[in-house]
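Milestone M4 deliverable, item 7.
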Amino acid sequence: MIKDFPTEVSFKGPGATYRTPSLDDAEEIRQILSDKDNMQYLKFMTKPGGWTLEQVQERLTKQLQGQKENRTMILHIIYEGKVVGMTGFTVIDTTHRNAEVGIILDKAYWGKNLATEAFYFSLKWAFDELGLHRIEWVTTNVNQGMRGWLEKVCGLEVEQIGRESLLVEDQWLDAYTYVLFEDDWRTRVKPHLESKIYKS
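Output delivered:
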């Protein structure tokens, strides 16, 4: 039985803090979403001239409403007091206990192990606290960074390839789906990520 989502969620890792969004985060999120380098693999989310503050506030409001309705759970990544990205689940199906997870991280904070840490806390909440069974990532053939992390760090294999299923700036891209199940999380992926995050 899936329980109701908490109103507020917060995790503190060695590198950053991960917490429920606030409307006060809107300007920092606007800057992240409006940066072309940050969004190079998420061009379908970009807007001509960048995001406006009102658009970001609307997005945050929908995410928070989705959390109240047990449909979404987004965590903002706080590094040295600043919002530097977001992770979590824009789609959660509590009936079939599955979800899709993703991340957007400001380019200035790449290479600091924050993506690994962010995914760890997101997955820990989803599997260990919420009780999900299956979590998937959907990325593209050109996103070698994400695919490399999923394959090399998590040891996941591609479950499905949707060939030429995404049209981005007049270019057809393949959609790659990777899946992690709860048993594999508990026996293999969780301890492996912990060993990378909590280095002795």
